Amino acid sequence: MPIHQCRSDLLACLLLREANYEKLSCAWSQIIMGKMMLREIFRIECLPVLQNKVYSTKKEAEGAVTGEVVLVQDENTGLIYNAAFDPGLIQYDENYQNEQAFSEAFRRHLDDVSGIIERNFSGCNLLEVGCGKGYFLEHLKNKGFSIKGIDPAYEGSDPDILKAPFEPGSGVEGDAIVLRHVLEHIQDPLGFLGSIASANGGKGLIYIEVPCFDWICTNRAWFDIFYEHVNYFRLADFYRMFGSVVEAGYVFNRQYLYVVAELASLRMPTRSGVTEVVMPPDFLDGIKRVENIANSNQKNVVWGASSKGVIFSIYMARHGIELGFAVDINPAKQGRYLASTGLMVKSPEHAFREMSEGDRIFIMNSNYLSEIVACSGNRYSYYEVQSAAILS
Question: What is the pTM of this model?
């Protein structure tokens, strides 16, 4: 679960000053006080602010709170973010469901990440900041790592996880910090990283993992831009944010990027080396391709009721494409409804009872293709949305 209690610019700046990060704090303050040079690169209106929140009724889902996405590139720093983001709209509760580890493919990804951590953090006492429900922390524990977690939204009884924001005086530190899929949710990512460095005594390595914006652009993944992600990072951003990068690369078939860096080398990224981001002119063309395929007598089903599936369903509804339901292997989502469209989520077993041979399954993440085909007995037509490929 993202650490929204730490999103405040004011809190971040205060923490930075306490840790003698005056230079970084001052530079960031100048930018947020009106000296930004912003260039809009993409816009979409009325997306649910929490696309991974599921609802008990169709009516509740259709009334989900929405917001506007206006992606801009800051020409001073090169960073890309949603200039229309309003943190006041984000309210997490028990209906927010984003656990991916029911999938064997995703568990293999976690093993890959564990290997990176072993390579760089062997023998270290680890601290996972923003550990959510603690699944990855437990995954590392089972592999023999010494690790503690901290998250103000934690709900559980693990004595190694502290329910609190990570700040000076929290009583926990680590030789190395793990920060997975948190930074894209933070309105002030530089200030937030500064607060982590401050709380950790300005020392140690950090592993950061976030979605890869270059992958989104290359794959024309129009279904992978949503409100809850404030920031959209490229690998080059982190080389400009840290003076000392130990290792960096891509995981999960390049959908995610990662960096291992020295916390003490955090700096304000400069304009030097910034490349201008231009969205591909055919970025949204995949919608028309889906529309052409979906207009037939077969039932259209979405496999994947998380972020990609929710946004895909919204675009389809806006283009008049009827979807039967969504399928997901996460039991917490089954029997619930997706934000904005009110599309019902069903278990694979329930879905198969309502489907006929030849019905169409739109696969939201190609990393799960083999699992989905095996689970469904290869009885349907399978469409990989991200690659515009159809498999029968």
Answer: 0.87
